[in-house]
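A.,

Following up on our hallway conversation. Structure tokens first:
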């Protein structure tokens, strides 16, 4: 797995991840807000009383196209990479949420990136020309 930083701003990073001749993307978005229960829609009603918010939430989107099989092993491998990229973050005070997304094409992935990094979309658009 090779990583190439394509974009970096104050609150958004975009990484191209090349694995087995196929490109995927990691979009790391610092929300700059405390985590909320709504950030964890997969928690069961029995788990919600144990939720403890942290000072900051960082959303990581893993963007793939249909030719990539999102196995549990792949997600675990991607999360290890994310942990390495964010090792400088005070993990005790940040929640890191990894969410995989499948898009029909790479251009759809790029459209999503521009939406997520909205403040910086002009700069990102310039880099992808």
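Then the amino acids I'd put at each of the 129 positions:
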């Amino acid at each position: 797995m090779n990583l190439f930083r394509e974009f970096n701003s104050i609150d958004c990073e975009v990484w191209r991840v090349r694995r087995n001749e196929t490109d995927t993307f990691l979009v790391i978005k610092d929300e700059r807000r405390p985590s909320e229960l709504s950030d964890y829609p997969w928690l069961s009603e029995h788990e919600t009383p144990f939720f403890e918010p942290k000072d900051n939430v960082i959303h990581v989107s893993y963007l793939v196209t249909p030719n990539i099989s999102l196995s549990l092993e792949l997600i675990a491998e991607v999360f290890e990479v994310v942990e390495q990229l964010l090792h400088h973050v005070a993990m005790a005070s940040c929640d890191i949420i990894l969410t995989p997304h499948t898009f029909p094409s790479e251009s759809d992935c790029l459209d999503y990136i521009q939406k997520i990094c909205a403040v910086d979309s002009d700069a990102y658009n310039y880099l992808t020309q």
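Strands lie at 2-8, 12-19, 22-30, 56-64, 94-102. Curious whether your intuition agrees with the design.

B.
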